[in-house]
Every structure is written in structure tokens, then in C-alpha cells.
Predict the 3D structure of the following.
Amino acid sequence: MDSFEQRKKDVLAKLDKSSIGKWDEKILKLCEKINSLENYYTTSSCSGRILVMQDQEKKGPNLFELVSHDLISYEKFMKCLPTNFHKRSFKFKQEPLILHVMCNELESAKKLLEKAQLSGWKRSGIIFAEKRIVVELLSTEKLEFPLISDGEFLVDEKFLKIVLKKANENMKRGWKKIQKLEKII
């Protein structure tokens, strides 16, 4: 077995180490399809998420107040937030879908990248690292802004409802790109 095949076998045999502790259901079929192909295997994936996190430079414990890989209503969003922020600062983020795929050769990477771009994954590219070829597939739907500063909300209910509507639309648009790429592959 060559080194690519062995790495693929080893990576796919590992337990999930994601922050949600399981495969992201909305991107699972695409990952399975890619992993069934001889020249590819996935190393990380996310179908997009909406979150509220502490506004700080370094990651640390209790960083996230809210993480949702699904659509979220204003009511559910507000229920997920604690009532006392203890003079801390938080930001709202809606992150786009992302997928990392190891490829056994440059031609395979180019083919996958072309299919992804045809499916709307605009911010994608090929990364060379230590004799390994990775295709990073990334979509463009993203929102980020300061939400709470020193324990005080910076936005009102009307603004937050508009942002959540836009974030949910972005998530749906990303999921359509996943389905489109799955069909093209």
C-alpha cells in the first residue's frame, strides 16, 4: 500500500475530533462520496455555522456561548445567550461551509477544484504542504460583527432579526452548494 492509501486509511479510521463530536449531517453525504473515490479523502468539514463567541485573541475554555449548525430563530438565539455577560465582550459570526480534501496528485486536485468552483465554492484553492496536496473548498457566505462590548448589547432587536435572517439565508445557500457539488462529483 502506498503512503497516500495508508494515510487515507489511517485518517478515515480515526474518531471524530470536531467541536460537535460527530459528523456534520448536512455535509456527510458529500464527504462519503469523496472518500469513496480512489484519489481523495476528506480531513475536515463543516456545512457552516452560526455562533456567538468571546471576542478575544486566543482560543481558550468557554470560548463559545452559542454554536448552531442549523437555522436559528431570534427567539432561540436569545434563549441561548446568558443574561449576565460580566463585562465581557462577544462577537456574532456566521461562518461559511468549508471542506479540506487530500489528493493523491495535482491533476486530481485540479479536477476537484474545477467541480467545486462550478458548484459555487468561490474561495477555494490548492495548498501544497510537506509533499501533500490539499484542496481547500470554502464558500463566501459570511457575517461577523461585535455583538456585546463590556457586557452591553451593541445592537437592537430589529438589527439582530435582520442579521439572523441573512445568516439563515447564507446557511441555506451554502447547503445548496454542497448538494450541487455532490451531484457534479
In short: The two ends are 25 Å apart (CA to CA). Residues 3-184 form a domain with the SSo0622-like fold fold (CATH 3.30.1960.10).
